[in-house]
Write a structure and sequence with these properties.
With about 450 residues, the protein is α/β, with parallel strands linked by helices. α1 packs parallel to α2 and α7 packs parallel to α9. Bound molecules: shikimate-3-phosphate (S3P) and phosphoenolpyruvate. The site of shikimate-3-phosphate has 11 residues, from α5. It is an enzyme of class 2 (transferase). Pathway: Metabolic intermediate biosynthesis; chorismate biosynthesis; chorismate from D-erythrose 4-phosphate and phosphoenolpyruvate: step 6/7. Its main location: cytoplasm.
Length: about 450
């Protein structure tokens, strides 16, 4: 058929003269929502998750645990998990479908490695290309029996008795760390895990709240896990996702005449890289209403600003890993040359995010150079549309960053595979619309 657009192609909002205005509570944190289900499932008693993220990735986790025999119910954004304990999961009747979610896959591998049954994990085309040996190999050192297919999904996990380890992580990855922690909960002694760099610490913090004995040394990279904790269900308010707030922090900073307030945003310092970078670039962000109930949260007021270029290296990457496409966009309007390196992990996300950003930014005439582990961007060069047909590459974060970029462009632009936003932020376009002054 001719002239048929891909199903989810979407016209994007063009240049905004009057800016973005208003207040917005972004959806719940994705990392914390996943973990709330998992840790609630292996606890005794009831866990209630308020402001749970109703997005495809977290629903993959929810369904997987239902298939593992855990009673889970949902009422709006409130999810109730009836825990079955660390040894109460049941062999599922079918392969567990991880959908598009790397977090679900890697964490569940660590948990199922120590159970008493066999499970098969499958995933969508994107997830089936992502590396899994980074989890299966260190787990094998603990005695796990995980067969991956050429390093990828499908994977078969045959539950085994696990040994304690003293292990130095080879990649700076919270997913790998979390898989090892979940395996270590089932091991035959205390395990010591040493990170390459500090990464998001939600697993450690949350498991402690459920009653686990997990110590992090003052160096922030050495974690000691005691096995067989008595985990007890909790009531948890999931904070707003900094990784979702980041799209509007970027948009309001770049679109002239903007002033927005984002409510109840998670401010865990292993996640606030974009906030720190934006401030260093000259962004105008004011923090108010700071709270700390387990995870720190705050309201953020963001106004348009003239931006300066920035240099970012490997040390800063973990705290901004999912927001790096947005850092690239900020750099594309900064008054100089920005350099982002040490970000090779971007090549193994939902898509190769370095290649995807370079390809999509070049459609807008942005001066971006691809590096093996990052980008160089000259924000002084005016943009000019070379190709108005943008593409999310099936990657939620690429789709949303291009929708923000479009707010700075006069010409009509379309986004192919726009429905990929459902992975982490199904209401993204509605929330953006609500901040647009007509
Ligand atoms: O642990 C988590 O919840 C996550 C960790 C990060 O992945 P890596 O640990 O693989 O870097 C991040 O990119 C992902 O969106 C969520
Ligand atoms: C990389 C991401 O998630 P995951 O690894 O869980 O698929 C992301 O949300 O950007």
């Amino acid at each position: 058929m001719e002239n048929v657009k891909p199903k989810s192609s979407r016209q994007l909002h063009g240049r905004l003269k009057l800016g973005l205005h208003g207040k917005l509570a972004v959806p719940g944190d994705k990392s914390i929502s996943h973990r709330g289900i998992m840790f609630g499932a292996i606890s005794e008693g009831t866990t209630v998750l308020h402001h749970f993220l109703l997005a495809a990735d977290c629903l993959s986790t929810l369904k997987a645990f239902q298939n593992l025999g855990v009673p889970i119910t949902r009422d709006g954004q409130t999810v109730t998990v009836q825990g079955v304990g660390l040894h109460g999961l049941k062999k599922p009747n079918q392969a567990l479908d991880m959908g598009n979610s790397g977090t679900t896959t890697r964490l569940i591998m660590g948990l199922l490695a120590g159970q008493s049954f066999q499970t098969k994990l499958i995933g969508d085309a994107s997830l089936s290309k992502r590396p899994m040996k980074r989890v299966s190999e260190p787990l094998a050192e603990m005695g796990a029996n995980i067969e991956v297919t050429d390093g990828h999904l499908p994977a078969t996990i045959t539950g085994s008795k696990l040994h304690a380890v003293d292990y130095h992580l080879k990649v700076a990855s919270a997913q790998v760390k979390s898989a090892l922690i979940l395996a270590a909960l089932q091991a035959d002694g205390d395990s010591v895990l040493v990170e390459k760099q500090p990464t998001r610490n939600h697993t450690e913090k949350m498991l402690r709240a459920f009653g686990a004995d997990i110590r992090t040394d003052p160096d922030d990279v050495t974690i000691t896990v005691r096995p067989e904790p008595h985990l007890q269900g909790i009531d948890l308010n999931v904070p707003g996702d900094m990784s979702s707030a980041a799209f509007f922090m970027t948009a309001a900073s770049m679109v002239p005449n903007s002033r927005i307030k984002l409510l109840n945003v998670g401010m865990n310092d292993t996640r606030t890289g974009l906030y720190e970078i934006l401030k260093r670039m000259g962004g105008k962000v004011t923090v108010s209403n700071e709270q700390n109930a387990g995870e720190p949260t705050a309201d953020l007021t963001i106004e348009s600003a003239d931006l300066k270029p920035i240099t970012i290296g490997a040390d800063e990457i973990p705290a901004v890993i999912d927001e790096l496409p947005l850092v690239a966009l900020l750099a594309a309007k900064a008054n100089g040359v920005s350099r982002i390196t040490g970000a090779g992990e971007l090549r193994v996300k939902e898509t190769d995010r370095i290649a995807a950003i370079v390809e999509e930014f070049q459609k807008l005439g942005i001066a971006i150079e691809e590096l093996e582990d990052g980008f160089v961007i000259d924000g002084r060069k005016p943009w000019h549309v070379v190709d108005p047909h943008l593409d999310s590459h099936g990657d939620h974060r690429i789709g949303m960053v291009m929708a923000v970029a479009a707010l700075l462009v006069d010409q009509p632009l379309t986004l192919a595979a726009a429905d990929s936003i459902n992975i982490s932020y199904p209401e993204f376009f509605d929330d953006l619309d609500a901040l647009i002054q007509r």
